[in-house]
Amino acid sequence: MMKRLGTLFGITLLGLVFMWVSLGTGTVTHAQEAWVRLDGPILPGGVALAMAVAPSQPETLYTFVDHPFGVRLFRSQDRALSWTQVVTVSNALSPTLIQALLVDPGNEQMLYLTNNSGTFRSTDGGLNWTGILTTGVYIATPAPSLVYVLGQVDEGDSNCYAPWLFARSEDAGNTSQYTDLSCLEMVGPLAVAADDPQIIYVSVGRSDVTLLMSKDGGLTWTGNRTLPPSVQKVAVDPTDPDHLLAATYGGVEQSYDGGQSWRNISMFPLRHFLEPIEVLFARDGTAYIVASRFGFNPQFDDWIPVLYRSDDSGKTWWLATEPLPDPWTRLVVAPDDASLLYAWTPRKGILRSVSGGATWQEQNNGIHSPVAIADIKTVDNGVIYVAASRFDLTRNGLFRSGDGGLSWTTVLTDVFVEQVVVDPQERIGLAIGRGKLHGGSATAGEMQWRTDLLWTEPNHMLVNAIDLSHTDPALPLIAGQERPSEYERRGIIRRWRPSSGGGDMGGWETLPITGTVNVTAVLVDPQLPTRLYASAVLVGGAWPLLISEDGGATWRQVARNQEAAPNRIERFYAAEGRLFALGFYFEDLMVSDDHGESWQILSRYAQDGWMSAIWDLVVSEDGQILVAADQGVYRWHPFLAQWESLGLPIGSVSALAIVQQGEEQILYASNSQGLWKRTLPSPPSTNHWLPLIER
After folding, report:
1. In this predicted model, what pLDDT tens digit does every residue of 32-56 receive, in sequence order?
2. Which of the 8 DSSP states describes residue 116?
């Protein structure tokens, strides 16, 4: 009996030791199947990567549009009025880094694309793709079945880090002739003369050569250094192979003698501070320049995308009165109509102009893409608000769902929204993005939203942080930076002053917070609305935590313990009587149980590098602390004093929210593949060692 008890005790002890080691040395990973992906919200368009028109059939166009589950190829057969999805191309064949898409001039079913792994061809309108070259950065198809490819060679030598190779094929890529171009730097796209495809220009950035030219289809090359350095792209006039346009970092250069001499045309009429993006010609010689013009406004410096056009071989230019919709706009001119332009952008998808660029209309009929979610907030009745876009790559806006994310209503369209707060009864809402403040209020049931609420305010304001009091949401709090002049900066906190009647419309009241140049985070204590928290940048460069006990009338700095206090707080959270702070570029997570007077470290990047940066935090009603991190969703295990994974490891998780649905609590999370949900797991168990019982 004693032997059996000893054996049983040994097995039990071994099991306890194994359980302790397994829990104490690694994270607990929950099944990925627990997460369910939602389809929305979606908007027309998406991140358009490339576009091409079939020269032999100008009604036919193709475009690649990015998607979390693969790049989609769309075709239009009515000049971009409508689109049909052809195929989702696997990421293994066609990564999102697509350099170019072209259609063979003699066959609208023959497509070519280049990406960072090579050159591919499709003979069936994009359904299937075959690799024809293991290199390919730039491509041109100046004549039926004639293909030029310029790319880098994998093997370098002692004299050249990245040698370049030119490939010429006269049978649509089946066989090729190669020309070694040796060491080149800052190489631009191929520019081929339309009437004589043997004439090719390539801009380069080598010290002794800025322009390469071939008159025999790329078999031999000559170079000159007359073109200014830092060239991005060269375009050749189809009606005159000696008329060239070159986009450089210093503006736009023009040549009428095949590149032997150049004249800068960026001063007038193309204005100062011109940053050209693209230069191109229509078949009849009409020239277009896509550029960004630098401008200053009281909120932040910006680049305004513009379009210039010349109808007389570059002698005179006019500026389109309507700015282009996206700073990264790329153009294609219809082969049979110089005034018909197509544009693809990473935010609004496909656009078309029938007026030579004077006006633009979206043409995304048939193309929809998920938004990139930056923030998720919920209210008491289960309504979900989603803010987009975190990376500013897709259509932006603010979206609302009243059925747990099954369907969505667009609240704000084409407005960059990084953060949103809504009071629990959905009476007041605030949203910010790129320093601008947007707000909503419910007057007769449904909340109505407006944009640019501070545009008429004196000195304007770059808003970094927003918050609402749950007990008095009519007094929202905003914080950020004021710019009285181009070079002056002041930290500022404002609170809304409601109307007092008698014609008083109310307005923003400035709270005194002197000696600061910026305010990065702000919070209203949920339990005591007169207690406010702020993180500010002082004139001397320090990043103190500030607390006000009287609604912002006076502020005091919290004494800092450098080892256990957040440095540069980016975001505050308050839940279940505790105060949380994300600091140091979202790499530190701190918690305070005494209203911010002292802090403890929950996660620090230097210690928990496996989890990396933390982007959002939620606390459940039963006290579970969950974070959205670079590597997925994690939950704090208080017994083990470490983080455990809740799955969703694909891509950085940007936002979290918890919604009560019936008897269940649902956890929502967003990453690069969209919006996900799962049932909130039970709190982590708190196991304890049992005392040893002696016989």
Report:
1. 568 999 988 988 998 899 999 999 9
2. T
